[in-house]
Amino acid sequence: MTDTMMSTLTDPMAAFDFWIEKFRDDLAHQAEHAWPPHPAPPVLMTLSTVGPDGYPRTRNVMVSSFTGTGTGSGRICFHTDSRSEKASQLEANPRVSATILAPDRSRQITVIGVAVPATDEENATAYSNRSRYLQILAWLNDDFQALLPIDERHRNWDAFGEAHPDLSDCPPSTWAGYAIIPREFLFWQGDVDGPSQRTRFLHRSNPAPDPAAGNGARHTTDTWTTEVLPG
Fold first, then answer.
1. d(CA 116, CA 181)
2. What are the CA-CA distances from residue 128 to residues 21, 63, 125, 134, 162 (Å)?
3. Residue burial 50-82, b: 16+ Cβ < 10 Å; e: rest
C-alpha cells in the first residue's frame, strides 16, 4: 500500500488489516528462516492505560483479532486477566492508546480510542486460538504462583498440564477481553530516501436527516477525516 493509496483511503481499518497481515507475514518469514526454525510469534501492541495517579502505564499485549472494515470504527481486541492492573485501570478510565511496530521497524500504527468489554464469542475464540503455553498461563498467572520458588512454580505448571491435556474450550473465569473502539489512527511510514510521513484518520459521528423516519428524525453517519503529516 503506497503513500498515495494511504492518503486517498476512507476506511483506516482496511489499511490496518493490510498492514497487520504484512506484519504477520514478515514475522512468519523471519521465524521460518531462523536457526533453528520456530513458530511465528504473535503481533504485539504496546498498550497504554491511565493509572490511578494520572500517569500512563504501558505494556505489550497480543493483538487477538480485529474487525470492522466499512464505515464503522472497528474493533481491535486484546485479552488479559480480570485481576490485572490494566483491567482495573480500564474500569476506571477506558481511554487507551496502542502502538504496533513493524518487524523491520519501517512502519508503525498508533490507535487511540476507548476499550470496551469483548463479546463472549470474541473471548472464546481468542482463548481457543492461544498456544498451549498461553492457555495454561491464563490459569496459573496469579499472585500465589508468583510468590513461590521457581522450582515449585515449575512443578505446579507440569502437574496442571498433565491434569488438563486439552484446555482449548476451558478458559478460566478470570479470562477477560477488551475491544478498542478507535477514534483515531496514525500510520507512520519510514523512507530511507527522504523524510518519513504520517497519515492520520480521525473518526467523526455526524447527525443527518433520516427521511425514512419522518418528523424531522435524524440518524448518525460515521465518517473518517484524513490528514497527511510530517513523520
1. 7
2. 20, 14, 5, 10, 18
3. beeeeeeeeeebbbbbbebeeeebbbbbbbbbe
**Could you give the CA distance from residue 79 to residue 102 in angstroms, rounded to a whole number?**
21
Interval 26-69: pLDDT, tens: 999 999 988 888 888 899 999 999 999 999 999 999 999 998 75
For residue 52, the one-letter residue type is P
Stated pTM of the model: 0.88
Cα separation values, 87 from 22, 78, 82, 92, 217, Å: 30, 11, 6, 9, 39
Helices (H), the chain: 3-8, 12-32, 85-92, 120-129, 132-140, 143-146, 150-163
Q: List, for residues 103-136, the tens digit of each pLDDT value.
A: 999 999 999 999 999 999 999 999 999 999 999 9
The beta-carbon contacts of 4-9 under 8 Å, at least 24 apart in sequence, are: 6/187, 6/189, 6/199, 7/199, 7/226, 7/228, 9/199, 9/201, 9/226
